Amino acid sequence: MKFYSTNRQSPAVSLQEAVFKGLPDDNGLYMPESIPILPDSFLQNAQERSFAEIALEMSKGFVGDQMTEEDLQSIIDAAFSFEVPLVQLDANIYILELFHGPTLAFKDFGARFMARLLGHFNANANEEINILVATSGDTGSAVAQGFLGVPGVNVTLLYPSGKVSELQEKQLTTNGQNIQALEILGTFDDCQKMVKQAFLDPEITGKQKLTSANSINIARLIPQSFYYMYAWSRLKEINKDIVFCVPSGNFGNLSGGLLARKMGMKVDKFIAATNINKIVPDYLLNGNFEPKPSIQTLANAMDVGNPSNFPRLKSLLGDDYEQIRKYVTGCYFNDEDTLEVISEVYDRFDYFLCPHSAIGYKGLKNYLKENPESIGISLATAHPAKFVDTVDRATGSDVDIPLSLEEVMGKSQNSIIIGNTYEDLKAYLLR
Ligand SMILES: *Cc1c(COP(=O)(O)O)cnc(C)c1O
Q: What's the pTM?
Protein backbone atom coordinates (compact mmCIF):
# COMPACT_ATOMS: atom_id res chain seq x y z
CA MET A 1 0.00 0.00 0.00
CA LYS A 2 1.29 3.43 -0.98
CA PHE A 3 0.39 6.76 0.58
CA TYR A 4 -0.14 9.86 -1.55
CA SER A 5 -0.09 13.53 -0.60
CA THR A 6 -3.44 15.34 -0.66
CA ASN A 7 -1.69 18.21 -2.50
CA ARG A 8 -0.57 15.75 -5.20
CA GLN A 9 2.82 17.46 -5.70
CA SER A 10 4.96 15.01 -3.69
CA PRO A 11 5.46 11.38 -4.72
CA ALA A 12 3.54 8.53 -3.12
CA VAL A 13 5.56 6.69 -0.45
CA SER A 14 5.52 3.51 1.65
CA LEU A 15 3.91 3.47 5.08
CA GLN A 16 7.32 3.49 6.73
CA GLU A 17 8.33 6.63 4.86
CA ALA A 18 4.97 8.32 5.49
CA VAL A 19 5.27 7.61 9.21
CA PHE A 20 8.84 8.93 9.43
CA LYS A 21 8.24 11.99 7.27
CA GLY A 22 4.95 12.91 8.90
CA LEU A 23 4.31 15.66 6.39
CA PRO A 24 4.96 15.45 2.62
CA ASP A 25 7.23 18.16 1.15
CA ASP A 26 4.30 19.75 -0.68
CA ASN A 27 2.66 20.50 2.69
CA GLY A 28 -0.28 18.15 2.04
CA LEU A 29 -1.26 15.18 4.18
CA TYR A 30 -0.55 11.53 3.51
CA MET A 31 -3.54 9.33 2.65
CA PRO A 32 -3.75 5.68 1.57
CA GLU A 33 -4.00 5.27 -2.21
CA SER A 34 -6.90 2.92 -1.76
CA ILE A 35 -9.01 2.02 1.23
CA PRO A 36 -9.46 -1.68 1.87
CA ILE A 37 -13.11 -2.68 2.20
CA LEU A 38 -13.71 -5.32 4.84
CA PRO A 39 -15.47 -8.50 3.69
CA ASP A 40 -19.16 -8.90 4.54
CA SER A 41 -18.33 -12.04 6.48
CA PHE A 42 -16.25 -9.89 8.82
CA LEU A 43 -18.75 -7.05 9.11
CA GLN A 44 -21.67 -9.37 9.85
CA ASN A 45 -19.83 -11.13 12.66
CA ALA A 46 -17.85 -8.22 14.04
CA GLN A 47 -19.80 -8.33 17.31
CA GLU A 48 -18.06 -11.61 18.10
CA ARG A 49 -14.57 -10.16 17.66
CA SER A 50 -12.51 -8.56 20.38
CA PHE A 51 -11.16 -5.03 20.02
CA ALA A 52 -7.73 -6.44 19.15
CA GLU A 53 -9.19 -8.72 16.48
CA ILE A 54 -11.07 -5.84 14.88
CA ALA A 55 -7.93 -3.70 15.03
CA LEU A 56 -5.87 -6.42 13.37
CA GLU A 57 -8.36 -6.92 10.56
CA MET A 58 -8.64 -3.18 9.92
CA SER A 59 -4.91 -2.45 10.03
CA LYS A 60 -3.83 -5.39 7.89
CA GLY A 61 -4.80 -3.64 4.66
CA PHE A 62 -2.59 -0.63 5.49
CA VAL A 63 0.27 -2.24 7.40
CA GLY A 64 0.17 -5.89 6.36
CA ASP A 65 2.73 -5.60 3.56
CA GLN A 66 5.27 -4.02 5.94
CA MET A 67 5.52 -6.65 8.66
CA THR A 68 4.39 -10.10 9.69
CA GLU A 69 0.97 -10.64 11.19
CA GLU A 70 2.64 -11.66 14.47
CA ASP A 71 4.52 -8.36 14.69
CA LEU A 72 1.37 -6.40 13.88
CA GLN A 73 -0.54 -8.38 16.49
CA SER A 74 2.01 -7.62 19.19
CA ILE A 75 1.98 -3.90 18.30
CA ILE A 76 -1.81 -3.93 18.67
CA ASP A 77 -1.77 -5.88 21.93
CA ALA A 78 0.79 -3.54 23.47
CA ALA A 79 -0.83 -0.34 22.19
CA PHE A 80 -4.43 -1.08 23.24
CA SER A 81 -3.88 -2.63 26.64
CA PHE A 82 -6.92 -0.92 28.15
CA GLU A 83 -10.72 -1.08 28.16
CA VAL A 84 -13.00 0.66 25.61
CA PRO A 85 -16.43 0.67 27.33
CA LEU A 86 -19.59 1.55 25.43
CA VAL A 87 -21.93 2.87 28.11
CA GLN A 88 -25.65 3.20 27.50
CA LEU A 89 -26.80 6.44 29.08
CA ASP A 90 -30.34 6.74 27.72
CA ALA A 91 -32.69 4.82 25.42
CA ASN A 92 -30.97 6.01 22.24
CA ILE A 93 -27.71 7.46 23.58
CA TYR A 94 -24.45 5.61 24.09
CA ILE A 95 -21.18 7.05 25.29
CA LEU A 96 -17.99 5.51 23.96
CA GLU A 97 -15.40 6.01 26.72
CA LEU A 98 -12.09 6.55 24.95
CA PHE A 99 -10.26 7.72 28.07
CA HIS A 100 -9.04 4.56 29.76
CA GLY A 101 -5.50 4.69 28.36
CA PRO A 102 -2.52 5.81 30.47
CA THR A 103 -3.00 9.56 29.84
CA LEU A 104 -6.79 9.40 30.15
CA ALA A 105 -7.66 10.84 26.73
CA PHE A 106 -8.45 9.30 23.34
CA LYS A 107 -5.07 10.48 22.02
CA ASP A 108 -3.61 7.33 23.59
CA PHE A 109 -5.05 5.26 20.72
CA GLY A 110 -3.18 7.10 17.99
CA ALA A 111 -0.05 7.91 19.94
CA ARG A 112 0.55 4.41 21.30
CA PHE A 113 -0.03 2.73 17.95
CA MET A 114 2.26 5.21 16.26
CA ALA A 115 4.98 4.85 18.90
CA ARG A 116 5.10 1.10 18.48
CA LEU A 117 4.96 1.24 14.70
CA LEU A 118 7.82 3.72 14.66
CA GLY A 119 9.78 1.66 17.16
CA HIS A 120 9.34 -1.35 14.87
CA PHE A 121 10.48 0.54 11.77
CA ASN A 122 13.43 2.10 13.59
CA ALA A 123 14.55 -1.08 15.35
CA ASN A 124 17.44 -1.67 12.96
CA ALA A 125 18.41 1.93 12.27
CA ASN A 126 21.20 3.50 14.29
CA GLU A 127 20.11 7.08 13.69
CA GLU A 128 18.32 9.01 16.43
CA ILE A 129 14.81 10.22 15.70
CA ASN A 130 13.52 13.54 16.98
CA ILE A 131 9.81 13.69 17.42
CA LEU A 132 8.33 17.15 17.38
CA VAL A 133 4.79 17.57 18.68
CA ALA A 134 2.55 20.60 19.07
CA THR A 135 -0.06 19.93 21.71
CA SER A 136 -3.23 21.69 22.82
CA GLY A 137 -3.12 19.57 25.97
CA ASP A 138 -3.64 15.87 25.47
CA THR A 139 -1.56 14.83 22.45
CA GLY A 140 1.74 15.71 24.06
CA SER A 141 1.38 13.50 27.10
CA ALA A 142 0.00 10.59 25.08
CA VAL A 143 2.99 10.78 22.74
CA ALA A 144 5.39 11.22 25.65
CA GLN A 145 3.96 8.15 27.39
CA GLY A 146 4.17 6.15 24.18
CA PHE A 147 7.87 6.94 23.67
CA LEU A 148 9.09 7.32 27.25
CA GLY A 149 12.41 5.55 27.63
CA VAL A 150 12.47 4.24 24.03
CA PRO A 151 16.15 4.19 22.97
CA GLY A 152 17.06 6.26 19.92
CA VAL A 153 13.98 8.47 20.16
CA ASN A 154 13.82 12.01 21.56
CA VAL A 155 10.53 13.81 21.99
CA THR A 156 10.08 17.60 22.04
CA LEU A 157 6.62 18.83 23.08
CA LEU A 158 5.39 22.37 22.33
CA TYR A 159 2.45 23.56 24.40
CA PRO A 160 0.82 27.01 24.71
CA SER A 161 1.73 28.71 27.98
CA GLY A 162 -1.23 29.18 30.33
CA LYS A 163 -3.66 27.49 27.96
CA VAL A 164 -3.58 23.92 29.22
CA SER A 165 -5.07 22.68 32.49
CA GLU A 166 -2.84 22.28 35.55
CA LEU A 167 -3.10 18.50 35.30
CA GLN A 168 -2.31 18.52 31.60
CA GLU A 169 0.75 20.70 32.23
CA LYS A 170 1.96 18.27 34.88
CA GLN A 171 1.52 15.37 32.47
CA LEU A 172 3.51 17.25 29.83
CA THR A 173 6.37 18.49 31.98
CA THR A 174 7.15 15.72 34.46
CA ASN A 175 8.22 12.89 32.16
CA GLY A 176 11.99 13.46 32.15
CA GLN A 177 14.27 10.98 30.35
CA ASN A 178 13.99 11.42 26.56
CA ILE A 179 11.07 13.88 26.76
CA GLN A 180 11.51 17.69 26.76
CA ALA A 181 8.61 20.13 27.10
CA LEU A 182 8.77 23.62 25.55
CA GLU A 183 6.37 26.18 26.97
CA ILE A 184 5.48 28.50 24.09
CA LEU A 185 4.49 32.10 24.82
CA GLY A 186 1.64 31.93 22.33
CA THR A 187 -1.35 29.90 21.22
CA PHE A 188 -1.76 26.30 20.08
CA ASP A 189 -2.00 27.55 16.50
CA ASP A 190 1.45 29.16 16.95
CA CYS A 191 2.82 25.83 18.22
CA GLN A 192 1.33 23.99 15.29
CA LYS A 193 2.69 26.51 12.79
CA MET A 194 6.18 26.37 14.34
CA VAL A 195 6.27 22.59 14.08
CA LYS A 196 5.04 22.59 10.50
CA GLN A 197 7.72 25.09 9.54
CA ALA A 198 10.50 23.02 11.08
CA PHE A 199 9.54 20.13 8.82
CA LEU A 200 9.80 22.34 5.74
CA ASP A 201 13.19 23.82 6.74
CA PRO A 202 16.10 22.01 5.05
CA GLU A 203 18.52 23.53 7.58
CA ILE A 204 16.80 21.42 10.23
CA THR A 205 15.80 18.34 8.25
CA GLY A 206 19.32 18.15 6.75
CA LYS A 207 20.80 17.77 10.23
CA GLN A 208 18.20 15.77 12.17
CA LYS A 209 15.80 12.96 11.44
CA LEU A 210 12.59 14.77 12.35
CA THR A 211 9.25 13.07 12.75
CA SER A 212 5.88 14.50 13.63
CA ALA A 213 3.54 12.72 16.00
CA ASN A 214 0.71 15.18 15.50
CA SER A 215 -2.59 14.00 14.18
CA ILE A 216 -1.25 14.82 10.73
CA ASN A 217 0.80 11.62 11.01
CA ILE A 218 -0.95 8.82 9.15
CA ALA A 219 0.00 6.33 11.89
CA ARG A 220 -2.36 8.18 14.22
CA LEU A 221 -5.26 8.25 11.81
CA ILE A 222 -5.44 4.52 11.14
CA PRO A 223 -5.99 3.36 14.77
CA GLN A 224 -8.62 6.04 15.26
CA SER A 225 -10.87 4.08 12.94
CA PHE A 226 -10.77 0.91 15.09
CA TYR A 227 -12.95 2.08 17.96
CA TYR A 228 -15.72 3.30 15.65
CA MET A 229 -16.02 -0.15 14.12
CA TYR A 230 -15.77 -1.75 17.55
CA ALA A 231 -18.51 0.46 19.06
CA TRP A 232 -20.73 0.01 16.00
CA SER A 233 -20.37 -3.77 16.21
CA ARG A 234 -21.51 -3.71 19.85
CA LEU A 235 -24.82 -1.95 19.17
CA LYS A 236 -27.94 -4.01 19.52
CA GLU A 237 -29.80 -1.66 17.17
CA ILE A 238 -27.46 -2.16 14.23
CA ASN A 239 -30.27 -1.97 11.67
CA LYS A 240 -31.35 1.51 12.70
CA ASP A 241 -29.81 4.77 11.52
CA ILE A 242 -26.57 5.07 13.45
CA VAL A 243 -25.00 8.42 14.16
CA PHE A 244 -21.66 9.22 15.77
CA CYS A 245 -21.07 12.54 17.49
CA VAL A 246 -17.43 13.59 17.64
CA PRO A 247 -16.10 16.44 19.80
CA SER A 248 -13.64 17.95 17.33
CA GLY A 249 -10.65 20.25 17.10
CA ASN A 250 -8.19 19.19 14.43
CA PHE A 251 -10.64 16.63 13.02
CA GLY A 252 -8.29 13.66 13.26
CA ASN A 253 -10.83 11.77 15.34
CA LEU A 254 -13.69 12.40 12.94
CA SER A 255 -11.48 11.47 9.98
CA GLY A 256 -10.93 8.11 11.70
CA GLY A 257 -14.70 7.62 11.71
CA LEU A 258 -14.95 8.44 8.01
CA LEU A 259 -12.20 5.93 7.37
CA ALA A 260 -14.16 3.22 9.21
CA ARG A 261 -17.21 4.12 7.11
CA LYS A 262 -15.22 3.67 3.91
CA MET A 263 -14.06 0.29 5.17
CA GLY A 264 -17.66 -0.85 5.45
CA MET A 265 -19.15 0.40 8.72
CA LYS A 266 -22.81 1.29 8.09
CA VAL A 267 -23.42 4.73 9.50
CA ASP A 268 -25.95 7.38 8.68
CA LYS A 269 -24.26 10.52 9.91
CA PHE A 270 -21.33 12.03 11.76
CA ILE A 271 -21.89 15.09 13.90
CA ALA A 272 -18.92 17.46 14.05
CA ALA A 273 -19.34 19.10 17.46
CA THR A 274 -17.02 21.98 18.28
CA ASN A 275 -16.69 24.78 20.79
CA ILE A 276 -16.90 28.35 19.50
CA ASN A 277 -13.89 27.63 17.27
CA LYS A 278 -16.50 26.66 14.69
CA ILE A 279 -14.53 26.71 11.44
CA VAL A 280 -15.90 23.38 10.20
CA PRO A 281 -19.55 23.86 11.33
CA ASP A 282 -19.41 27.18 9.42
CA TYR A 283 -17.98 25.44 6.38
CA LEU A 284 -20.79 22.88 6.50
CA LEU A 285 -23.29 25.75 6.42
CA ASN A 286 -21.80 27.98 3.77
CA GLY A 287 -19.10 26.04 1.93
CA ASN A 288 -16.30 28.43 2.91
CA PHE A 289 -13.35 27.11 4.89
CA GLU A 290 -12.01 30.12 6.74
CA PRO A 291 -9.35 29.51 9.39
CA LYS A 292 -9.39 32.06 12.22
CA PRO A 293 -7.22 32.70 15.27
CA SER A 294 -8.20 30.20 17.96
CA ILE A 295 -10.30 31.31 20.92
CA GLN A 296 -9.66 29.88 24.37
CA THR A 297 -12.49 27.79 25.87
CA LEU A 298 -13.12 25.28 28.65
CA ALA A 299 -12.76 22.48 26.07
CA ASN A 300 -9.18 23.51 25.41
CA ALA A 301 -8.12 20.48 23.36
CA MET A 302 -10.59 21.70 20.76
CA ASP A 303 -9.33 25.30 20.63
CA VAL A 304 -8.23 25.02 17.04
CA GLY A 305 -8.63 27.82 14.51
CA ASN A 306 -7.14 25.99 11.53
CA PRO A 307 -8.09 22.32 11.73
CA SER A 308 -5.11 20.39 10.37
CA ASN A 309 -6.98 17.26 9.27
CA PHE A 310 -9.56 19.12 7.20
CA PRO A 311 -8.01 18.01 3.85
CA ARG A 312 -8.39 14.41 5.05
CA LEU A 313 -12.01 14.88 5.97
CA LYS A 314 -12.63 16.22 2.47
CA SER A 315 -10.63 13.52 0.74
CA LEU A 316 -12.49 10.76 2.61
CA LEU A 317 -15.70 12.10 1.12
CA GLY A 318 -14.42 12.48 -2.41
CA ASP A 319 -13.63 16.21 -2.10
CA ASP A 320 -17.31 16.73 -2.82
CA TYR A 321 -19.23 19.33 -0.80
CA GLU A 322 -22.58 17.61 -1.31
CA GLN A 323 -21.16 14.28 -0.11
CA ILE A 324 -19.57 16.00 2.85
CA ARG A 325 -22.89 17.60 3.80
CA LYS A 326 -24.66 14.31 3.36
CA TYR A 327 -22.50 12.52 5.91
CA VAL A 328 -21.35 15.29 8.24
CA THR A 329 -23.44 17.83 10.07
CA GLY A 330 -22.01 20.49 12.36
CA CYS A 331 -22.87 22.13 15.65
CA TYR A 332 -21.05 24.24 18.23
CA PHE A 333 -21.48 25.29 21.85
CA ASN A 334 -20.04 27.96 24.12
CA ASP A 335 -18.63 27.60 27.64
CA GLU A 336 -21.94 28.37 29.28
CA ASP A 337 -23.63 25.54 27.33
CA THR A 338 -20.75 23.25 28.25
CA LEU A 339 -21.12 23.85 32.00
CA GLU A 340 -24.87 23.41 31.73
CA VAL A 341 -24.56 20.05 29.98
CA ILE A 342 -22.03 18.71 32.49
CA SER A 343 -24.40 19.65 35.29
CA GLU A 344 -27.50 18.30 33.52
CA VAL A 345 -25.93 14.92 32.74
CA TYR A 346 -24.61 14.59 36.26
CA ASP A 347 -28.00 15.39 37.79
CA ARG A 348 -29.87 13.10 35.47
CA PHE A 349 -27.55 10.10 35.14
CA ASP A 350 -25.02 10.53 37.95
CA TYR A 351 -22.38 10.54 35.20
CA PHE A 352 -19.43 12.91 34.82
CA LEU A 353 -18.48 14.29 31.39
CA CYS A 354 -15.33 16.27 30.62
CA PRO A 355 -15.98 19.59 28.80
CA HIS A 356 -15.14 18.09 25.37
CA SER A 357 -17.35 15.07 25.89
CA ALA A 358 -20.14 17.37 27.11
CA ILE A 359 -20.06 19.22 23.79
CA GLY A 360 -20.37 15.88 22.01
CA TYR A 361 -23.27 14.79 24.19
CA LYS A 362 -25.14 18.03 23.59
CA GLY A 363 -24.60 17.80 19.83
CA LEU A 364 -26.00 14.29 19.80
CA LYS A 365 -28.92 15.19 22.04
CA ASN A 366 -29.96 18.04 19.73
CA TYR A 367 -29.63 15.84 16.67
CA LEU A 368 -31.80 13.12 18.19
CA LYS A 369 -34.51 15.68 18.91
CA GLU A 370 -34.82 16.15 15.15
CA ASN A 371 -34.16 12.46 14.36
CA PRO A 372 -35.81 10.49 17.16
CA GLU A 373 -35.55 7.15 15.34
CA SER A 374 -31.74 7.24 15.20
CA ILE A 375 -29.33 5.63 17.63
CA GLY A 376 -26.41 7.78 18.69
CA ILE A 377 -22.93 7.17 20.00
CA SER A 378 -21.15 10.16 21.46
CA LEU A 379 -17.40 9.91 21.90
CA ALA A 380 -16.09 10.75 25.37
CA THR A 381 -12.59 11.95 24.58
CA ALA A 382 -11.11 12.64 28.02
CA HIS A 383 -11.57 11.49 31.60
CA PRO A 384 -13.54 14.07 33.61
CA ALA A 385 -10.78 14.13 36.24
CA LYS A 386 -8.43 15.73 33.73
CA PHE A 387 -10.69 18.79 33.95
CA VAL A 388 -11.49 18.51 37.61
CA ASP A 389 -11.94 22.26 38.22
CA THR A 390 -14.50 22.70 35.47
CA VAL A 391 -16.34 19.49 36.29
CA ASP A 392 -16.50 20.26 40.03
CA ARG A 393 -17.64 23.80 39.26
CA ALA A 394 -20.43 22.57 37.00
CA THR A 395 -21.69 19.75 39.20
CA GLY A 396 -20.89 21.00 42.68
CA SER A 397 -19.55 17.53 43.26
CA ASP A 398 -16.06 16.01 43.41
CA VAL A 399 -14.99 13.74 40.59
CA ASP A 400 -12.71 10.91 41.72
CA ILE A 401 -9.09 11.38 40.70
CA PRO A 402 -7.47 8.22 39.31
CA LEU A 403 -4.24 7.16 40.98
CA SER A 404 -2.11 7.84 37.89
CA LEU A 405 -3.15 11.51 37.95
CA GLU A 406 -2.50 11.87 41.65
CA GLU A 407 1.03 10.59 41.17
CA VAL A 408 1.72 13.05 38.38
CA MET A 409 0.43 15.98 40.50
CA GLY A 410 3.12 15.29 43.07
CA LYS A 411 6.02 15.51 40.60
CA SER A 412 8.01 18.67 39.88
CA GLN A 413 7.71 20.38 36.51
CA ASN A 414 10.49 20.88 34.02
CA SER A 415 9.97 22.95 30.87
CA ILE A 416 11.89 25.48 28.77
CA ILE A 417 10.06 28.73 27.97
CA ILE A 418 10.48 30.12 24.44
CA GLY A 419 8.74 32.70 22.21
CA ASN A 420 6.08 31.98 19.61
CA THR A 421 7.97 32.44 16.35
CA TYR A 422 9.65 29.83 14.21
CA GLU A 423 12.99 31.53 14.84
CA ASP A 424 12.60 30.75 18.55
CA LEU A 425 12.05 27.07 17.84
CA LYS A 426 14.85 26.95 15.28
CA ALA A 427 17.32 28.45 17.75
CA TYR A 428 16.31 25.79 20.28
CA LEU A 429 16.61 22.91 17.79
CA LEU A 430 20.03 24.06 16.58
CA ARG A 431 21.33 24.78 20.10
C1 LIG B 1 -7.58 16.23 20.86
C2 LIG B 1 -8.86 16.21 21.57
C3 LIG B 1 -10.07 16.47 20.92
C4 LIG B 1 -10.11 16.86 19.47
O5 LIG B 1 -9.77 15.79 18.62
P6 LIG B 1 -9.35 16.09 17.10
O7 LIG B 1 -8.92 14.79 16.55
O8 LIG B 1 -8.24 17.09 17.15
O9 LIG B 1 -10.56 16.64 16.42
C10 LIG B 1 -11.23 16.39 21.65
N11 LIG B 1 -11.22 16.10 22.96
C12 LIG B 1 -10.08 15.85 23.63
C13 LIG B 1 -10.15 15.54 25.08
C14 LIG B 1 -8.86 15.89 22.97
O15 LIG B 1 -7.74 15.64 23.63
A: 0.92
